[in-house]
Design a protein that fits this description.
The structure is a homodimer. Chain A is α/β, with parallel strands linked by helices. Chain A folds into 3 domains: 53 residues, lambda repressor-like DNA-binding domains (434 Repressor (Amino-terminal Domain), Orthogonal Bundle); 122 residues, Rossmann fold (3-Layer(aba) Sandwich); 131 residues, 3-Layer(aba) Sandwich (Rossmann fold), CATH 3.40.50. Chain A is built from 13 helices and 12 strands. In chain A, the strands form 2 sheets. Chain A has a 6-stranded parallel beta sheet with strand order 2-1-3-4-5-11, with helices on both faces. In chain A, strands 7-6-8-9-10-12 form a 6-stranded mixed beta sheet, sandwiched between helices. In chain A, helix 1 packs across helix 2 and helix 5 crosses helix 13. The mean pLDDT of chain A is 93. At the A-B interface, helix 1, helix 2, helix 4, helix 5 and strand 2 of A face helix 1, helix 2, helix 4, helix 5 and strand 2 of B.
Chain lengths: 328, 328
């Protein structure tokens, strides 16, 4: 790859002069311009985005930080962000943070060094303290970790209410809830929605709320233990679909039948829920729309850093599949 | 973000001079150096990778082109490539090409403009004609599309033989094969491995080979049609696990039992195969190792463009789960 420096050297001018010719900005004498253009031609130099980004302080790069692209919720989010990046000419950078604050901070530092233009972050561990030093726009996605940032999410509390209400409607007598990681904002919102519906029920006890950490294996183990201790449970609202798949495996191992003995509702609406047997009833978020809205909002803020921050909350919907009994 | 240009302006020197100070290369008088350093200090300028990449022609960026990150084979590959990028200080760029040659060429062009240092490409549509103009190292991954490039793959033909042999060992009398897209090199290799084992069988007919395009829904539809026309089929070697999930759904809708009436083996070894009921017997590729080896090989070539190209072929293994009958 020919560099701008080689072009400058061959033309006998400074890098800044080559840049002025390339960007058509500032005064360059006709004679110098001709020398630079000849040098560009001779070396087959392609004026590249790196050169442009140096002089504009912009890289036309957007980064998405997610806990782990291998969790099947995130590929759909990544896809939608990348589609918008691509259509606006931004390069899409993906970072896996593993819920580690050290990794998150290392990425934030490295991405600033790369002059990334903006960040979309899914995090349960960052706070406003960590992001206040970042001088490019940031959108928090899926989870709210800093109320000073623009935020794109779904209505988790309402979704959880839909799930718990539906389990009541199909005559579940005791409804348990499997939660996500403690520090994730959507864990708390989904738990609150569940509590809104069940906390005044005669049967209710906090023993029916256990954590599965949004993880299939952890949820499977927690649910087996819970159902052995509490055989009265006949409805499960599981905080995401990955844990829903774990719930199905747990119940299969206990030789119980879904939905005959127990009905299950997940959350997210990822395609995994259509491949399980039985298929998983779920509260579906518009995942693709959430990712693309976050990317659009970020590009608006990159173009105009002064536009007011906003929170966009998408509605959710219950999708009935085979893991819940039919209504009478 | 403070730019190098602002630093140069404040110090009253050229951008090239600031660069020489930052990179500790070339002569700068002590007085000028002091002015530049004062300007860097006053403006709180952080010498960034963009400035460095401009002068070195390197961006410390690696891009991975995949058909679609939402196909569950690719997140694991993306994760492993990103892990290696991160550990070597490279930024990881992800591009979804949708098997579209137009999108692939547009990305190749855009990434060259960004001075990307190297490319890892999963493609069934590109050829050597398209990549010969690219002047950064390229690794082809999973599929071979240009024999002049280094290539990382698994032993697809041997894997297909393992699958077909296993179906014979468990007494399947008629074994069908569902293939991937016609132009993918691994479709052909897997088909050849299947043929190696069954082509001389008395029952064999090419009617038992149908395409599912590595797509769950297409495979499901194709398999329903095939089994209705050929009820004698009692073994299915399905070219990837996503189509294996489609096969399970097709057979469920036909009210047949897996593995009692028909045994199924997939390919890939993605985690999806553990969430289906029954779980899916599969030929597992070491996906994470393939991605990380490709990234390491690419970084070697970035550091030394003259090292010889090589092909790395990983062994595969059969993982027996519930979708195949037990051996007698």
């Amino acid at each position: 790859m020919v560099t701008i420096r080689e072009v400058a050297k061959r033309a006998g001018v400074s890098v800044a002069t080559v840049s002025r010719v390339l960007n058509k900005k500032g005064y360059v004498s006709p004679k110098t311009r001709e020398k630079v253009e000849q040098s560009i031609h001779d070396l087959k130099y392609k004026p590249n985005d790196v050169a442009r980004s140096l002089f504009k302080g912009k890289s036309k790069m957007i980064a998405l930080l997610v806990p782990d692209i291998m969790n099947p919720f995130f590929p759909e989010l990544a896809r939608s962000v990348e589609d918008i990046c691509n259509s606006y000419g931004y390069t899409f950078v993906l970072c896996n943070t593993d819920h580690s604050i050290e990794k998150e901070l290392a990425y934030l530092n490295a991405l600033q060094q790369k002059s990334v233009d903006g960040l979309i972050i899914v995090s349960s561990t960052l706070t406003g303290e960590h992001t206040k030093e970042i001088n490019v726009p940031i959108i928090s996605l899926d989870r709210t970790f800093d109320t000073n940032l623009s935020n794109v999410k779904s209505n988790n509390r309402q979704g959880a209410r839909l799930a718990a209400e539906h389990l009541k409607v199909i005559d579940c007598k005791v409804i348990a809830h499997i939660t996500g990681p403690e520090n994730a904002s959507n864990t708390e919102e989904r738990k609150q929605g569940y509590l809104d519906v069940v906390k005044d029920e005669e049967w209710f006890s906090t023993d029916y709320i256990v954590s599965g950490d949004y993880n299939m294996q952890k949820a499977k183990d927690a649910i087996k233990k819970l159902l052995l201790e509490h055989p009265e449970i006949d409805g499960l609202f599981v905080g995401n679909d990955v844990m829903g798949a774990g719930a199905l495996k747990a119940i299969e191992e206990l030789e119980m039948q879904v939905p005959h003995d127990i009905s299950i509702i997940g959350f997210d609406g990822i395609s995994l829920g259509e491949t399980t047997t039985p298929t998983l009833t779920t509260v579906a978020q518009p995942i693709y729309k959430m990712g693309s809205r976050a990317a659009e909002l970020l590009i608006e803020q990159i173009n105009d850093p002064d536009i007011p921050k906003k929170t966009v909350e998408f509605p959710v919907e219950l999708i009935e599949r085979q893991s819940t009994r039919k209504r009478r």
